[in-house]
Amino acid sequence: MSVTQRLRAAGPRYAATAHKDRIELVVCGTSPRISALARASLRLATFRPPAEPTPLVPAPHTLTLASLDDGVELRLIGLPLVPAYAPLWPLAMANAVAVVRLDDAAAELLDETAALVGAKVLSAETLVPGFAEDDEGMVAELVIGALA
Questions:
Q1: 3-state DSSP call for residue 129?
Q2: 100 to each of 6, 26, 53, 71, 97, how far by Cα in Å?
Q3: What CATH architecture is 23-147?
């Protein structure tokens, strides 16, 4: 089964979220790791870049998009863990089906924010042992695992 087919199989269970046409998955960590993950995801045929440019500051932003069945769109949101921008984190997590931690940057603050908004935080290393953010196959497995 292809990555697209596997994503489409995992996505429908989240179509009943607040935004019936959108599923949001947040990946968080240091900016370099998030950038590497975004580049790797774009090497997968399933994903495409967003229309808006990457912000110049380490604020939450859409990394990539994927169209699933029935007009549902998967948005991969990057959340750079820079404590100065922590007041923006709840906005990124509010509609997320899951939050995936790439590393231990600002771990305590991330956990507090996730608890505040009721977000489920997963570890990339737990989802995909040996996870490498620059490996598109591992990125695909991470997204599929987070949606499972």
A1: coil
A2: 19, 6, 22, 24, 10
A3: 3-Layer(aba) Sandwich (3.40)
Cα gap 15→69, rounded to integer Å? 10
Chain position carrying tokens 């998030």: 34
User: Which pTM does this prediction carry?
Assistant: 0.91
The Cα 108–Cα 123 span in angstroms is 14
Residue 142 has what DSSP assignment? H
Q: Tens digit of pLDDT for each residue in 53-91? A: 999 999 999 999 998 877 889 999 999 999 999 999 999
Residue 129 backbone phi and psi in degrees, to 5: -55, 135
Q: How many residues does the chain have?
A: 148
**Type and span of the H or E element at 6:** helix 3-10
Q: What is the pLDDT of residue 13?
A: 53
**How many whole angstroms separate alpha carbon 114 and alpha carbon 107?**
10
The pLDDT tens digits for 108-126 are 999 999 999 999 899 999 9
Of 72, 51, 63, 61, nearest in space to 7 by CA: 72
